[in-house]
Specification:
Layout lengths: L37 H30 L2 H8 L1 H4 L10 H12 L4 E6 L8 E6 L7 E7 L6 E8 L6 H12 L7 H28 L15 H28 L4 H12 L37 H12 L7 E4 L8 E5 L10 E4 L6 E5 L6 H14 L4 H28 L23 H17 L1 H22 L12
Antiparallel strand pairs: 1-2, 2-3, 3-4, 5-6, 6-7, 7-8
Helix pairs in contact: 1-5, 1-6, 1-11, 6-7, 7-10, 7-11, 12-13
Length: 493
């Protein structure tokens, strides 16, 4: 049966009493054909969500495509800050810290040092300062060979993004509007998965009924107008479905409300990464709540610059064996130093060790190999989403997927515009699909309601907007079906 197989308007129903006047009644009436409801429901969801949430998805896709280009752009724009001439000699970390502190003065507090990862790279000495945003630090870039100050910039997060990349990142995350703006990205991430999965259901239904199956995996040759747009929309969508669902699911983990529920679920199921213990003495057993979370905490006391070298040397004998490393002094008395690997490329290296700054004894260590499977998957999902796991290849794939999603939204609007009701009121394409849920059996209605409740609980913003869509749709239907007064006879005018 076709997904749109309904009796044409005006076709008479078969007479159960007989086929013609005087004919004997049939002993067995043919079974009544049930009207389809699932595919029309998917079409209604896909249509409404695409029309109403499409702008948010489009902005998220375009800004995301721009973001994956910024690491390469950053290396060019900030080449002077990030690179330095290779030297046969090297200053100690303590000496580099003193140079940075002399440059900063009393305006900020030392919070971390990132030694030069490779020859030709600069060292970052990082400070907390009033007026900076969450996860932001002021970084002084030092030539480890000569001590020359190569730059002084605000950097963001574990990735250490410089101002250009930070601006694009915040555009993608919150439209550069701060916390209120994050609602846009949560709306886009939540609805992207719904739109894509509904579209996939429609694609499968059409694949089962059409003879030209190849036209669903590539645009139909020679097609024009609406059919051409539909061919590109359908074929492009099926090639992007896995990437789009992945970006939706991983993007939700950063969201305000849905992300909090994901974190709570991971904690309840013990899917979190093991925390590093940093408390010394009798208080041992408390873990560092800020480890690997990008939280900037200034030390409560002065830090001896030479301790950076000593602590780093101990960490090298434990589990820290990569170049990309961050060394953090204790944030309070009775706390240990933390040396954390920050290499996000594959193979993932995020091992950490805590060290007593006085005795240089190892307090605790956490290895990525010991992470629970779900914690590893979460780490990899974040790094894939940010384009750091497989470097340039990862970034190219993300750019293609994000650009494809943006194109899908534009094609969807073009399809609607091509067949909009105001252009030809006699055509149904482009107008909202017919209501489907009233056709569903009770078990179908119960299933849809149950799924909506679960989704609304896990993703509150999606649930709220879904409820608004349903209420708005009900109002529109009520107005549309309201009986109208008979039009006055033209002859009496």
């Amino acid at each position: 049966m076709s997904i749109t197989d309904e009796r044409p308007t005006g076709e008479a129903a078969p007479d159960p009493a007989g086929d013609a006047a005087g004919a004997p009644p049939r002993e067995h009436a043919p079974p009544r054909r049930t009207r389809p409801w699932l595919v029309p429901l998917l079409l209604r969801i896909h249509f409404y969500a695409g029309i109403l949430v499409g702008p948010f998805i489009l902005i998220a896709a375009v800004s995301g495509a721009l973001y994956v280009l910024t690491p390469a752009v950053e290396r060019v724009v900030y080449a002077h800050e990030l690179r330095a001439p290779v030297s046969q000699t090297s200053l100690s970390l303590g000496e580099q810290v003193r140079i940075a502190e002399g440059h900063i003065g009393d305006a900020a507090a030392l919070v971390a040092v990132r030694p030069a990862p490779e020859p030709g790279d600069t060292t970052r000495v990082m400070f907390a300062q009033d007026g900076l945003g969450a996860s932001e630090t002021r970084a002084v870039f030092i030539d480890p060979g000569t001590g020359e100050i190569r730059g002084d910039h605000t950097v963001y997060g574990t990735s250490g993004a410089l101002p250009l990349r930070t601006w694009v990142d915040q555009l993608h995350r919150s439209l550069n509007l701060g916390e209120p703006g994050r609602l846009y990205s949560e709306l886009a991430a939540s609805w992207l998965g719904v739109v894509v999965l509904a579209g996939l259901g429609l694609w499968i239904a059409r694949l089962r009924t059409t003879r030209a199956k190849r036209d669903l995996v590539r645009p139909r040759r020679g097609a024009t107008g609406y059919r051409r747009l539909f061919g590109w929309h359908a074929s492009l969508g099926v090639w992007l479905v896995l990437g789009a669902v992945f970006l939706s699911a991983s993007g939700i983990t950063w969201s305000t409300y849905g992300g909090a529920n994901v974190s709570s679920l991971r904690a309840a199921l013990s899917w979190q990464a093991p925390a590093l213990e940093t408390t010394l003495g009798d208080g041992a057993g408390a873990a560092d709540p800020h480890a690997d979370h990008g939280v900037v905490t200034a030390p409560s006391a002065a830090v001896a610059p030479e301790t950076f070298d000593a602590v780093f040397a101990v960490a090298r004998t434990e589990n820290v064996d990569v170049g990309a490393v961050e060394i953090r002094p204790p944030s309070a008395a009775g706390q240990a130093w933390v040396v954390q690997e920050i290499q996000r490329s594959f193979p993932t290296q995020v091992d950490a060790v805590s060290i007593d700054g006085e005795s240089l004894a190892v307090v605790d260590r956490v290895d990525f190999a010991d992470y629970p499977v779900m914690a590893k998957l979460a780490r990899w999902a974040v790094d894939l989403h940010m384009g750091t796991m497989f470097g340039l290849v990862n970034q190219i794939v993300l750019f293609v997927v994000a650009s494809g999603i943006a194109a899908m939204v534009v094609l969807g609007y073009a399809m609607w515009w091509k067949c909009r009701p105001t252009r030809d009121a006699a055509r149904g394409a482009g107008s909202a699909p017919a209501e489907a849920l009233p056709r569903a059996p009770l078990w179908g209605i119960a299933l849809v309601v149950a799924v909506a409740i679960v989704i609304g609980f896990l993703l509150p913003l999606l649930g709220i907007t879904l409820a608004l869509f349903v209420i708005g749709d009900a109002v529109v239907q009520a107005v549309r079906l309201r009986p109208r007064d008979a039009a006055p006879d033209a002859r009496t005018r």
